[in-house]
Write a structure and sequence with these properties.
Elements (H helix, E strand, L loop, with lengths): L6 E5 L3 H13 L3 E5 L2 H10 L4 E5 L11 H7 L4 E6 L4 H8 L5 E4 L4 H12 L3 H8 L8
Parallel strand pairs: 1-2, 1-3, 3-4, 4-5
Helix pairs in contact: 1-5
Length: 140
């Protein structure tokens, strides 16, 4: 797969997570845009052709899951991964209701996140479903 045509949006206020994700995606040949607020994520989506978004629950200005519908209004085909340090059944339910492809609990396995992103772009649903059943996306 030629990853050059795919663009990832990372929205997270945790600088460490952003840097690690950026490094991995850039090594794999993806274009990457990083922001730390929901407002900036929506603005970036309007200006760029984003294929996948990795959004943390706790952005500096809002809950990450609240912008998923806005992103899907801009690009109905966008794939969204939600990340969080603090997991709960209620939070996971709110996130999954928005139609995300993965709910990932930090600390992230950055290699797995890149694999998931590639699979999502290739529409390998079975790989993503399998990962949703692993510790990467463990449910309470």
């Amino acid at each position: 797969m030629n990853n050059k045509k795919y663009t990832v949006l990372i929205a997270d206020s945790d600088l460490h997570s952003v840097k690690k994700l950026e490094e991995r995606f850039l090594i794999e040949g993806f274009r990457v845009f990083s922001v730390n607020s929901g407002r900036d994520a929506v603005l970036c989506m309007r200006k760029r052709n984003i294929n996948i978004a990795i959004i943390d629950v706790n952005l500096k200005d809002m809950k990450g899951y609240t912008i998923v519908p806005l992103l899907k209004d801009i690009n109905k085909d966008i794939k969204v991964i939600i990340t969080t340090f603090r997991n709960s059944v209620e939070l996971e339910g709110k996130c999954r209701e928005t139609g995300i492809i993965l709910y990932a609990i930090k600390p992230l396995d950055y290699t797995q996140i890149v694999k998931i992103t590639k699979s999502a772009q290739e529409n390998h649903r079975e790989f993503i479903d399998e990962l949703n059943d692993t510790t990467l996306a463990k449910s309470l």
